[in-house]
User: Which sequence fits this backbone?
């Protein structure tokens, strides 16, 4: 059986992701313990964490103490500002404190002792739920690796979508068609941020699907099917990350270009108007979508700063928005 270059790339992407997911110690991806805490809370309580109550399980809390990732009141731990710090190696196949963590009482995963879980929109954590439950009776390590497996799958799907994008952009150049997804797959931060328990992997996939569909629209025009899938992707994105609505900035440009090119302007305008009105109406009933009409994006906004001029605050906000969001 002949293996195509894209199949080889997807296999390499999956293999690379699983290597990282298996080797990197738990809680060593950005805020991984907080993201996994939300998965665990949903699995134990059948609801997403909200409000001021405790949402970090005793099991995760104790494992953080063992691994040096427990944060103090200022959010610092043994790793913060200490890049030279690393967990001690052992002369066996079992890592330091691994036995103690793996054998914590099962009841600890449903005892909540601290507030640290992320309170993100729940789509990624709902998708992680069956992966978590599949090994529910196993150790903490097995459950973390199982959820990391979901992230690797989403990353592999993202690379495939990028391949489809490259086919649209480089119609006649087979080398470029495989080069673009390869550059994405082996980009270091992409590998790092899609191998842990992080919703970034789902954001990348949804954003890539959005780009693919808008390119299809620019090339072949609007259809009700494309409007439906774009709407579904936008809703999925809003239920994944608070800052996903920033993607709406691109829609007017897509609309303007297709309006200029389209010979059936009435059908095009009706499709756009119906889609936007539908999203607007939905945003009044779904809390995570309210940012559409309030223009309040939680991850873009900054905390109130006392005794600082408006201009200074504005500069700081713009810098943070570009550095952390766009």
Assistant:
């Amino acid at each position: 059986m002949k293996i195509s270059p894209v199949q080889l790339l997807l296999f390499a992407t999956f293999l690379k992701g699983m290597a990282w997911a298996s080797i990197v110690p738990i809680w060593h991806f950005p805020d991984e313990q907080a993201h996994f805490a939300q998965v665990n809370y949903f699995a134990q309580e059948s609801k997403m964490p909200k409000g001021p109550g405790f949402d970090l399980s005793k099991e995760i809390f104790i494992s953080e103490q063992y691994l040096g990732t427990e944060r103090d009141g200022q959010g610092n731990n043994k790793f913060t500002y200490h890049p030279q710090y690393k967990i001690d190696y052992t002369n066996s196949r079992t890592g330091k404190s691994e036995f103690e963590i793996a054998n914590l009482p099962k009841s600890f995963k449903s005892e909540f002792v601290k507030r640290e879980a992320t309170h993100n929109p729940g789509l990624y954590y709902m998708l992680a739920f069956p992966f978590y439950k599949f090994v529910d009776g196993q150790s903490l390590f097995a459950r973390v690796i199982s959820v990391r497996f979901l992230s690797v799958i989403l990353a592999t799907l993202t690379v495939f979508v990028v391949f489809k994008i490259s086919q649209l952009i480089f119609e006649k150049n087979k080398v470029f068609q495989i080069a673009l997804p390869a550059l994405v797959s082996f980009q270091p931060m992409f590998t790092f941020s899609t191998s842990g328990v992080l919703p970034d992997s789902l954001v990348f996939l949804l954003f890539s699907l959005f780009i693919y569909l808008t390119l299809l629209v620019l090339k072949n025009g609007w259809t009700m099917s494309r409007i439906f899938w774009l709407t579904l992707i936008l809703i999925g994105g809003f239920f994944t990350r608070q800052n996903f609505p920033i993607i709406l900035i691109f829609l007017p440009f897509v609309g303007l270009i297709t309006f200029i090119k389209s010979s059936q302007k009435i059908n095009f305008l009706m499709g756009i108007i119906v889609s936007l009105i539908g999203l607007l109406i939905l945003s009044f009933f779904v809390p995570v979508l309210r940012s559409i009409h309030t223009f309040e994006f939680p991850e873009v906004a900054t905390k109130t700063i006392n005794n600082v001029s408006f201009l200074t605050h504005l500069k700081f906000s713009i810098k943070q928005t570009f550095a952390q969001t766009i």
Observations:
- The first helix runs from residue 5 to 23.
